[in-house]
Amino acid sequence: MVFHHHYRQPAIVAAASVRGYLENAGITVVDRTSTEPIELIIVLGGDGTILEAANIAHRQGVPVIGVNLGHVGFLAEAEEEELGELCERVVRGEYQVERRMCIDVEVRHPDGSVQSEWAANDIAVLSTDKGHPALLAFGVDGEAVSEYGADGLIVSTPTGSTAYNFSVGGPVVWPDVQALVLSPLAAHGLFTRSLVLGPSSVLEIQVLPQQVQDCEVWADGRRILPAPLGSSIRVTKSTTDMQLARLVSLPFSARLVKKFGLPVEGWRGR
Hints:
alpha+beta, Rossmann fold, Tumour Suppressor Smad4, about 20% helix, cytoplasm
């Protein structure tokens, strides 16, 4: 499957080029509406487009490989000028699959109904009233930990630790670490630091009823679950992983330096 940003012209043009190359090589290419089984999703766009495609890949249990046509493109494997080489390598099957931990979220409403989602990057519990903070309490493994007023709470995977979590001061976690990262968003309280939880931890977030606004749960910034007053939100490590196809076995530290443009000139006398 070739998956591209819906509206950006460079992505549309690149998608047509990739489709033509693959079809000329004898590979069947399907679009996003197809119900046929797929082997790999080639994504053309930024991280948001890759995460959108990852939702399809998650349902079908296949890897994605991204070409960055956006800004940082942290999840992408190649840049636009490397598109030709990527197509050649994909046709020859010259790629490895790296598995990344995901999270499951379950929202239990006061009426007893339950909705669930998954996320490759993060889930964010946010107030629906941007002018007032949400009152949230959270606990781990059945034990209360803290509560405060905040714009929201972000729970990220190691993959998502460089995204929304990082922008609010949360730690960067290497992708081979199995962990949940909890970071408050503009919280008012005595204990508002990020927490790193073990992979078997069960995190529960409660939307306290003594407030006037409901909350929402955003999965990867794209899929929304309502969380009205009195809701309980349960977050755990997912039983399934996101699969990223890689052309080069590059250490995460090198990817971090490249994508963020970190200063390393003094390292070992460079």
